[in-house]
Amino acid sequence: MAKNLKTYAVLTIMVLGLVFMGIGCTGTQNSEGSSPVNETSSVGTTAAETTAAEAQGIFLKGSDTVLPLAQAEAEDFMTAYPEKSVTVTGGGSGVGIAALIDGEVDIATASREMKAEEIEAAKAKGIDPVEHSIAIDGISVIVNPDNTVSELTFDQLRGIYNGSISNWKDVGGKDESIVVLSRDTSSGTYEYFKEDVLLGDEYRKDALIQPATGGIVSEVTQNPSAIGYIGVAYLDESVKALNLDAGNGSEAPSPENIISGKYPLSRPLYFYTNGEPSGLTKEFLDYVMSEKGQSIVSEVGYFPMNK
């Protein structure tokens, strides 16, 4: 009887041992078998999701002039392809180009050509800037609607901005000081205006610098003595666009005059990519240059590229 009890006890211990070993093995498989599979699956899924997100999303940054156009194009593109993402921000042409050079964006938007030193800096970082003209823009010189001046010659406009003309009476207006507004140095419009209007002269030192086009519109709306320059897409009834005479007669910044070249302040707008675009970047650029995309150019207030 004692022998049977001893045998029974041994068997019981063995069975319990096997049970605990089974539990231990099961636990080991869950923590070292199943968990690594789950972890790999989790990591794999996250990586796949990240890759998919990168593949389906692109980033644009730069010109405030191009901003309303790029936003409209992006919204329409994402309506057509809701699984894809296009993020657009402003800040100025220089800001966008710097972001492209640093590899932070897929597309830099610009209202001027890249400078030689910017291209050199890009190539030093392994970036190959490729220029794409996407639309035509006109630069409007604006004043408050109460201002009696309706047109300026290029010489007068240059004098106002380089500081040699400081009173509206000197250009046919009221006897009051001119408040000159300008974009900041990061703006492509700033660079374009300096080159084509100031002919290399420096902006007058008392010019009020605005970080965005909206600031110029707002200030001119509130100040009857102010003058500024903006892209035609920003024109509204709160300001008055001046006719300009570059020596061939006074011309208004109308669509017809800008497209024909009669209006003296017109220029291309650009996308810059790192090398020839591919993937979603190419899809979006192709969309912008398509018949639909170029119709959006007109809707926003710019002018489509001639094909």
TrEMBL record:
Q: Which Pfam families does the record associate with it?
A: PBP_like_2
Which stretches make up the PBP domain? 48-291
- Check the record and name the InterPro entries matching this protein: PBP_domain, Phos-bd, Phosphate_ABC_transporter
A GO molecular function assigned to this protein is:
phosphate ion binding
CDD domains xref list: PBP2_phosphate
Keywords tagged on the record: Signal, Transport
Q: Which domain of life is it from?
A: Archaea
**NCBIfam families attached to this UniProt entry:** ptsS_2
Q: PANTHER family, alphabetically?
A: PERIPLASMIC PHOSPHATE BINDING COMPONENT OF PHOSPHATE ABC TRANSPORTER, PHOSPHATE-BINDING PROTEIN PSTS
- Name listed for the protein in its UniProt record: Phosphate ABC transporter, periplasmic phosphate-binding protein PstS
The species this protein belongs to is: Methanosarcina lacustris Z-7289
